[in-house]
Amino acid sequence: MIRFFYNMAPNPMKVALFLEESGLDYEPVPIDTRKGEQHSDTFKALNPNAKLPVLTDGETVVFDSNAILLYLADKTGQFLPDASQRGPLLSWLMFIASGLGPFSGQAVHFRNFAPEKPPYAVKRYDFEARRHWQIIEDRLGQGEWMLGDTYTILDMAVWGWAPRLPYMMGDEAIFETYPNIARMLKAIEARPAAARAHALKDRHDWKEEFDEVAMRSLYPQLFAPDPVV
User: Fold this and answer.
1) What is the pLDDT of residue 40?
2) Other CB atoms closer than 10 Å to residue 129's CB: what's the count?
3) Cα 196 to the center of its chain, rounded Å
């Protein structure tokens, strides 16, 4: 039995979409990061980095959302392009993992969560996040999906982050800048699997308060000693 350790953040949602699209039987296991459950010894035995998502498949443990997408796609043979497109698939998957996700995460952190908002950090991550999203926008201008006519795990990986663009970038009109992303997002949101993935939020009573417990759980660096400089 596949066990899927998740919350409703962008990276776990990518995997939730695949699981619902594929029809795989799985057990969703909520990990409430605002309560610090990701720092338990039990969870860190699965992912020493204390991040979501994690997937277990029998004795196999996979962490990092894009690694999980690739593992599941290879396991099932679903949502992959033909073999000639394996290079572009891996390239874009790593682009999302190493660039799009991290820069988007830092942009939203410094804009919305950092106790101090240094102008340089806000400007740098806003610029880099927008630059990466423009690359995705341009790519989607070349076809219906990231790999042309084929709906793949790349589109799922983009979808995890895309609905949060207005909040992440502090721009309610941002989809006017990225019409191709908006088109793809609308197409995926219309799929029944996306509705089922969103419905996972109702399976757990998530901590809503962003109090000191949540801050210590999510941003422990705020409570660590200042580095020696």
Assistant:
1) 97
2) 25
3) 17
Q: How many CB atoms lie within 10 A of CB 72?
A: 25
Q: What is the pTM of this model?
A: 0.95
> pLDDT, tens digit, for every residue of 34-56?
999 999 999 999 999 999 999 99
CATH number of 83-190, picked from 1.10.1530.10, 1.20.1050.10, 3.30.43.10, 1.10.645.10: 1.20.1050.10
Non-local CB neighbours of 128 within 8 Å, separated by 6+ positions: 99, 103, 106, 107
